[in-house]
Amino acid sequence: MMSPCTQSPLAVELARLQQLVRVSAGRADAAELERLFQHVRLHQIELENQLAELHETKAALEDSSHGFAELLAATPIAFLTLDGQAVIREVNRAGARLIGLDRTLLLGTPLLSFVEPGGSAPLWEHLRSCAESGHATTELRLVTRRDVTLCMQLTSVCTKEGLFPTTLADVLGPSEAEAELARVKAEAHDAIKVHEELLLTLTHDLRGPLSSILLGTEIIRRSRPPHDRRSDRKQIDRIGHAGERMRWLIDDLLVASAIELGSFEIHPRLVEVRPLLDATIEIVSPIASSRGVRLELTTAELWSAPLDPERLQQALVDLLGHAIKFAPEEALVGLLATRTGEEVEVVIHDPGPGVPDSQLPSLFDRYPKGEGRRRRTGLGLFIARSIVERHGGRIWAERGPAEGLAIHLTIPARAPAGS
Fold first, then answer.
1. Over the stretch 210-244, which tens digit does the pLDDT of each residue have?
2. Whether 352 contacts 323, CB under 8 Å
3. What distance in Å separates the CA atoms of residue 245 and residue 325, rounded to the nearest whole number?
4. Does CATH place domain 77-186 in 3.30.450.20?
5. How confident is the model at residue 196 (pLDDT cuts 50, 70, 90)?
6. Number of other residues whose CB lies within 10 A of the CB of residue 324
7. Angle at 208 between CA 253 and CA 204, to 5 degrees
8. Cα–Cα dist 82/84, whole Å
9. End-to-end CA distance of the chain, in Å?
10. CA 377, CA 154: separation in Å to the nearest integer?
11. What DSSP line would sit under 130-189, residue for residue?
12. Does 332 or 257 have the greater pLDDT score?
């Protein structure tokens, strides 16, 4: 909850606007506007309290998740997570060393690729037994990328989502430490899911009071003459812009929670790309203007592509917002769209502070690595990557031609056959 002596920018603007209206409006109009102000202020206080609780919950979740991920990656016990099709969804460094392949290459690879020929039946029986009883242990012969055959003990537990956290050991019989690690991993996974569900519920609840604030602001705006240029009109516009920005942040939290819970979906259809880009520029232009940043859209052709326009626009808004945030005043943020072969490629460049090469691979992660107050983090990059990948596309970041950062994304320009 906010300190009594601390006022949010929205609260300050509301108080200033209220004083201006009391002075300028007639008695009858002032009474009605006063009622609207009280209504908006009540919802504003409720929204600020809920936002404070939401930020505390989010910070606690990020700290616990990041700490556990670091511990799991560094533990000397070989560990991986399988899905119901025996595909590797997570693996730590010890597990990757045991199999003899880089972690990034192992993700998305079926464990059957390393099972000795004719040995798939024990693996399927292991997963079936684990799903039924909640835990299982079996022996399996794996062939590593160094062509070394190991007799492995798999110890797995089954989570509520149907995933199988598993420890690997090349000795007979699982140790108590390995079994305990798998159990703790499953409990941590369930705890993270509970946190994400709570975050999803809180963000849904925040939409109600925020919508009331935006509606009240619009009613006040319409009560003023259309050509009124007094300072209270500017204050109303500032409140409206602040509310819209808060709504974008809440939408990002909702999408991030849906991605983490596995319930995020897209609904592609054939859409013209240029009008979508024009609409995106129009959405972010007020933010760019308020920061003294210029926007430039470059595209020479008109194409259509199979995509979900609302979701892809959300990704582009997040990426442009990120670029505007780090661009210096009077800088130019460019958006270039081209078609190369069977793909549409979009490049967003800003001349802000660059990113070290070591941080580029993790830039779009849920919890990216980086140091310094100006490090490039946030939900927007994580959400943009998820949206682009759901479209069957790719996204990556490079250093700009001279300075800054260039983010590239591609999406297929042709729908799959029969769609």
1. 666 666 666 766 666 666 555 566 666 666 666 66
2. yes
3. 13
4. yes
5. low
6. 22
7. 30
8. 7
9. 50
10. 37
11. HHHHSEEEEEEEEE-TTS-EEEEEEEEE--TTS-EEEEEESSSS--HHHHHHHHHHHHHH
12. 332
Distance CA 183, CA 158 (A): 9
For tokens 């012969």, name the residue.
Answer: 141
List pLDDT tens digits, range 265-301.
889 999 999 999 999 999 889 888 888 999 999 987 7
CA 371 and chain centroid, separation: 19
Distances (CA, A) of 155 to 86, 337, 348, 418: 14, 49, 46, 43
CATH 3.40.109.10 fits 269-412, yes or no: no
Reading the block at residue 239, the tokens are: 């409140």
Q: Are 139 and 129 in contact (CB under 8 A)?
A: no
Instruction: Say yes or no to pLDDT of 368 above 70.
Output: no
Least confident of 66-75, 123-132, 238-247: 66-75
- Name the token pair of 228: 């009124």
The number of C-alpha atoms within 13 Å of 301 and in the hemisphere containing its C-beta is: 10
Residue 205 has pLDDT above 70, yes or no: no
The two tokens of residue 234 are 């500017």
Identify the bridge partners of residue 409 per DSSP, sorted by sequence position. Answer: 346, 395
Q: In this structure, are strands 294-298 and 332-340 parallel, antiparallel, or unpaired?
A: parallel
Using the predicted structure, report yes or no on whether residue 96 has a pLDDT greater than 80.
Answer: yes
> What is the chain's length?
419
* Tokens describing residue 280: 């995106």
User: 15-24, 112-121, 124-133, 252-261: which has the minimum mean pLDDT?
Assistant: 15-24
Cα–Cα dist 415/398, whole Å = 28
* DSSP string covering 118-133: T-HHHHHHHHHHHHHH
Cα angle 65, 62, 85 (rounded to 5 degrees) comes to: 40
Percent of the chain with pLDDT over 90: 23
